[in-house]
Amino acid sequence: MRRPLIIGNWKMNKTASEAGAFIHDLRERLPASPNADVVLAPPFTALESARKALGPSSWISLGAQNVHWEQHGAFTGEVSAPMLRELGCRYVIVGHSERRTLFGERDQDIQKKVQAALTYGLSPILCVGESLAEREAGRTESVVTTQLTGSLAGLTTEDLATVTIAYEPVWAIGTGRAATTEQAVAVHRSIRLFVETGWNSETASAIRILYGGSVTPQNIESLLASDPIDGALVGGACLNPESFATIVGIAQTRRA
Ligand code: PGA
Fold it and tell me: What are the beta bridge partners of residue 232?
């Protein structure tokens, strides 16, 4: 049985001190031992204070929002996987639509980032999703398949065991217009089929596939009620400790 996973993607929000205060507040609201995995993805500059606020034995994991594929070198402004590992990160988001559209990331770049994450023991959270124009043109499945094909090229079944896929329709991100459960489920099914075809059915039934895009305390329950949806990548609603804790609480009541 796949364990639910909730990721809070803070994007470019919260200073180091704000991160510490947020986590102290959040911890008060969450139980001591959960039935769901929870990952916080603060900006790079807040990772250290987030780690301190979580403490050494926290069940909440840390993730980064991006990574460079090289280990070190002349890449001004970039951060590598071993740097993130040493800061206590266990996960890293790769290929978020904001990285793709605002910073020009292509599938071949994302594939190198996935590889680098795996090499240095970080679990990649690979984001895929179509734009509104692509959906309206009936191209959702082909767009997502192209992204998956490019980003997961060369991965073994062992690699896939630590990868999470987040389906995030671009038109749903930050718009308050979440996909319906039916829309999300249809794409989740096609992603799982893609993994089954490219690897095997065991890998496909084990991989966690999340939904992201305007997830709120109000809609999380119906999203998670669907078997193919294993959790959520939460943006706006993760910045408030009360709403994020509510989302995690609902995920915890789901099958573990
Ligand atoms: P949102 O962002 O929840 O604010 O729509 C989700 C994301 O971009 O990961």
Answer: 6, 211
Q: How far is the CA of 173 from the centre of ligand 1 (A)?
A: 5
Active site residues: 96, 168
**Quick one: average pLDDT of 30-59?**
93
Q: Give the residue, by CA position, lying nearest to ligand 1 atom 9.
A: 235
Dist CA 204 CA 218 (whole Å): 29
Give me the CATH number covering residue 95: 3.20.20.70
CA-nearest residue, atom 1 of ligand 1: 235
Average pLDDT score over residue span 86-112: 97
Would you state the pLDDT for residue 255?
57
* 62 C-alpha to ligand 1 centroid (Å): 17
For residue 189, what are its two tokens?
Answer: 């099914």
Instruction: Answer whether 30's CB lies under 8 Å from 247's CB.
Output: no
Question: What is the pLDDT averaged over residues 220-232?
Answer: 95
Q: How far apart are CA 166 and CA 126, in angstroms?
A: 6
- With a Cβ cut-off of 6 Å, ligand 1 is lined by 9, 168, 173-174, 212-215, 233-237
The total of structural domains in the chain comes to 1
Please give the average per-residue pLDDT across 104-130, as a whole number: 98
Residue 237 carries which DSSP code?
A: G
Please, how many CA atoms are within 13 Å of residue 13, restricted to the half-sphere of its CB? 13
Residue 39: closest CA among 84, 4, 81, 80: 4
Distance 111 CA to ligand 1 centre (A): 22
**Domain carrying residue 87:** 5-254
Position of tokens 């769901």?
36
Out of 11, 234, 239, 244, mutate this one to test ligand 1's pocket (max ligand atoms within 8 Å of CB): namely: 234
Indicate whether this model's pTM tops 0.90.
yes
- Nearest-CA residue for ligand 1 atom 3 is 235
